[in-house]
Structures are given as C-alpha cells and as structure tokens.
Amino acid sequence: MKKYFFFDIDGTLTTPLTADYPESTRAAVKELIRRGHFVSLATGRMQADALEVARTLGISALVSDGGNAVTIDGKILYDEGLPLSDCIRTLSDIDEEKHPWAAAPYNKKYRITRTPLYLEKVKDRYYETEVDPSFDFRKVSAIHKIFVACSKQEKDDIPLYTLPHVWFSKDTMLIEPVHKERGIMEIQKRFHIADRDIVVFGDGMNDRSMFRREWLRIAMGNAKPELKALASYITDRADENGIYNACRHFGWI
Known about the structure:
Number of helices: 8
C-alpha cells in the first residue's frame, strides 16, 4: 500500500555531527521512491535551501519554511513569510546593541543585519550575511527568518510577541515557523490521503507539531526525549542507519 513519507532534514536525513547523508539513508529514500511511495521533505529550512537537498536525494516534494511553503514537482504551491506585523514589532523592540539580529527577507540563503556586531557575536556562516546600516525592515514585503544573537539564558530579553522560535545554535535564537503539519495537511488535502498512510520522521522539537496522534510518528535514536515520548516508534540514530532500519522494520523497502 502506498505511503506518504515526510522527512525532517537535520539530524534525521543527516547525521547529527557531520551533516552528511548516510549511504543507507540515500538507499532507503531511493528505494521508497522506486516502490511508488510518495516522499517529501518536512523542514524548517527555506524553500530554496530545502530544494537543494531535495534535488540531491531525488525527492520531488517539500514542505519547507516550517510549514509555510509547499513545493511539488518544482512548482511552489505557496511560500509565505512570518507574520510581518509581529516581525516589525519584535525588531523594533529588541535592544540591537545587546542582541544584534539579522533578517532573511528573500527565499534564499541570505540575511541582512544593520550592524557588524552581529558577525562578531554569531559564529555561523551558513547564510550569506550582508551588513547594511540603512536596511529598513519596515519596508520589506516578507521576512522568512530572524536570527538573534542571544543565549538561552537571555531568552526573556527578546520580545517575541506571537512569533515562534527554535535554537539555531547556542549563541543564536532563530525565529521561524514551526508548524510543519500545516504543509503536510495541505498535501494530504490535495491528494486525498488517509491519515493511516502518512509517516513522519523527525528528531527535534521543531518536529513536534507534525507528530500528530493520527499519523505514524517515527523518532530517530538521536531525537530529543520529548519527541521520543510522542513517537509511535523509535528507530536507531541517523548515523546508525536509522531511516533504513525503520523502513525495513515496517516492510516499506
């Protein structure tokens, strides 16, 4: 029977430490597709970023932007940013000298900060970062993500209003959508998929929203304990053939 798979990327399709795609994972995804199953990503990454991963693995569908974007066969069904009014309120009220920030206004691995302090405080360089003191966040049409130089101990310094957040790294709060189930349900509605045929794989707390009781929920061995508690099944770690072993366990490959 055809199943509809939704895979988180980081820590699920990739190994937690090296961010590589294990050969067993590549083999499992390829075999699922060969057998006629539907395979999609379900990630917090932006659409353009996730699309690169999808092409690497031969996957043609993706739920990206934490559920705020859906792409099927290269066609973007929708791609929305965060609630713009709350982004403006948050960025207006942050103490920018204490907690410099960068915003991602476009569907690309690119962010803008108004101060060089951001690059001094934040170590990651995954996104191209432009320093533009004249950047006016009030004039952009969308904001997909906000990166804030902030530790977990300083979380209460950040006026989030309704905006959700996760931790990009120990020195960076990442404000991004965290309702992956929204994109999955859009695909479910489009293809008239029964709940029993949906399978989700994840490892982090941004996967929690798609670990719905009516779907088969598979947590990686390296998953957060809180996510494991919501799982239907716990497989091995991502770097110990977790995806391949789960798919073999259930007879999908």
